[in-house]
Design a protein that fits this description.
Helices cover about 45% and strands about 0% of the residues. It comes from marine sediment metagenome.
C-alpha cells in the first residue's frame, strides 16, 4: 500500500480518515431550538392570524410583493414561467398547429387566473 502524506488531500480529494462514516450525520444535534422557523411556529396563533391579515391587507392594496407571497402561499410557487413553442425555420404546418394549440392553452390559463383573482388588463 502506498503511503500518503497530508499534502495529497485537498479540494475534490478529501482525506477518508477525516470524513463522515456511512450513516453518520453531519449535524447530529439537528436544527437549533432557537431558529427563526421554530420560534415563529411556536407563536401565539392570534399573532399568526394578525400577520396573515396584514399580508392580505397589503395584497388587497396592490403591494406586488404581498400579492406574490399570498399567491405563492395559497396556490404554490410557479416553477416555470416561459412558454416554449418550438418554432424553427423549417417548421411544418403540423408543428405550427401544435404551437398554436400550446399558445391558446396558455392564453386560456391566463384568462382563468385573471378571472379567479379579479385582475383587470389586456388578454
Amino acid at each position: 500500500m502506498v503511503q500518503r502524506n497530508s499534502n495529497d488531500y485537498g479540494y475534490k480529494n478529501p482525506d477518508p480518515a477525516k470524513g463522515w462514516q456511512p450513516g453518520q450525520s453531519g449535524n447530529p444535534n439537528g436544527r437549533p431550538k432557537s431558529s427563526v422557523t421554530t420560534l415563529l411556529k411556536n407563536r401565539n396563533p392570534e399573532d399568526n392570524k394578525k400577520v396573515a391579515d396584514t399580508l392580505y391587507a397589503l395584497a388587497i392594496r396592490g403591494d406586488m410583493s404581498a400579492i406574490r407571497e399570498y399567491i405563492d402561499r395559497t396556490d404554490g410557487k410557479v416553477t416555470e414561467t416561459r412558454l416554449t413553442l418550438g418554432i424553427m425555420a423549417h417548421t411544418t404546418p403540423e408543428l405550427l398547429e401544435q404551437a398554436q394549440k400550446r399558445l391558446t392553452g396558455a392564453m386560456n390559463g391566463t384568462r382563468e387566473l385573471k378571472e379567479k383573482y379579479n385582475v383587470e388588463g389586456t388578454s
